[in-house]
Design brief:
Layout: H1 2-17, E1 23-24, E2 34-35, E3 68-69, H2 70-83, E4 88-89, E5 92-93, E6 98-104, H3 109-118, E7 139-146, H4 175-191, E8 195-197, E9 200-205
Parallel strand pairs: 2-6
Antiparallel strand pairs: 1-3, 4-5, 6-7, 7-9, 8-9
Bound molecules: zinc ion.
Zinc ion binds near residues 104, 134, 141 and 203.
């Protein structure tokens, strides 16, 4: 009888340990991914919002440690495995391939409240009362880099630039910038199976993320 019970419970126990919504550090799964959590630094675009003026902003994150749910980390691994094999794109050569640089992943819900207080614009900031997919570990903000030099590919805007130029549909851009944005999008959608966000070229989320729990702890 005990054996039968264990047989029934075992898959549940295993699933509980490696569930899709478990938070992991992408670096543990993708050896050459670059993490640059901009909200752990003063280098982010909240400072460029005119309404903020001279307001002194806190450091939003306590550490340059990024986390995402396992399902998203596995999807990003597929993307990076594909990008790493690119040697030529857009007239440039990439001797070590192209890679991903992550700017943001899991975000504590308390920080979401802070963002909303500073800039309550629902196009760019999810209302903390319902929470952001970042608060569930199911969204990621990223760009592409040259793996040989670490240099970012030219993209339409800087990270978290809250402007129409950040939208996927914005087309008054040099062709090479459009091509880079489209490369990122096509790998994230067609290889990684992620969802886009039409107002932000850097934001991707994993299907089903809205069912993952909202979380609120700081990285250490
Ligand atoms: Zn985002």
């Amino acid at each position: 009888m005990k054996k039968v019970l264990l047989f029934i419970l075992l898959p549940v126990l295993i699933y509980g340990q490696v569930g899709d919504d478990e938070l992991v550090n992408p670096k543990d799964i993708i050896y050459d991914i670059v993490m640059d959590l901009r909200y752990s630094t003063p280098d982010h675009s909240f400072l460029n919002i005119p309404q903020i003026g001279e307001m002194e902003l806190p450091k939003f994150y306590t550490a340059n440690e990024g986390l995402v749910v396992l399902k998203l980390a596995n999807a990003l691994k597929l993307a990076q495995d594909s990008l790493r094999n690119i040697r030529n794109f857009n007239g440039n050569s990439y001797p070590a391939g192209i890679g991903i640089k992550i700017w943001d992943g899991y975000r504590p819900r308390a920080v979401q409240y802070l963002f909303w207080e500073i800039f309550p614009n629902s196009t760019y900031i999810a209302n903390p009362s319902s929470g952001s997919l970042h608060n569930r570990g199911g969204a990621v903000d990223l760009t592409l880099i040259d793996l040989a030099t670490g240099e970012e590919l030219d993209m339409p805007t800087a990270f978290d630039d809250f402007s129409p130029q950040a939208a996927h549909g914005y087309s008054s851009l040099p062709q090479n910038v459009i091509n880079n944005r489209e490369l990122l999008r096509s790998i994230m959608v067609n290889v990684a199976g992620l969802n886009i966000y039409s107002s932000e070229w850097w934001h991707y989320s994993v299907p089903g993320a809205s069912t993952y729990p909202l979380m609120d702890f700081q990285m250490k």
